[in-house]
Amino acid sequence: MYIRKLEKHEKVPMELLLLADPSKSFVEDYVAKGDCFIAESEEQIIGVYVLLPTRPKTVEIVNVAVAEEHQGKGIGKLLVSDAVRVAKTHGYKTIDIGTGNSSIGQLALYQKYGFRIVSVEYNYFVKHYSEEIYENGIQCTDMIRLSREL
Ligand SMILES: CC(C)(COP(=O)(O)OP(=O)(O)OC[C@H]1O[C@@H](n2cnc3c(N)ncnc32)[C@H](O)[C@@H]1OP(=O)(O)O)[C@@H](O)C(=O)NCCC(=O)NCCS
Question: Is the shortest distance between the CB of 75 and ligand 1 below 6 Å?
Answer without folding.
Answer: yes
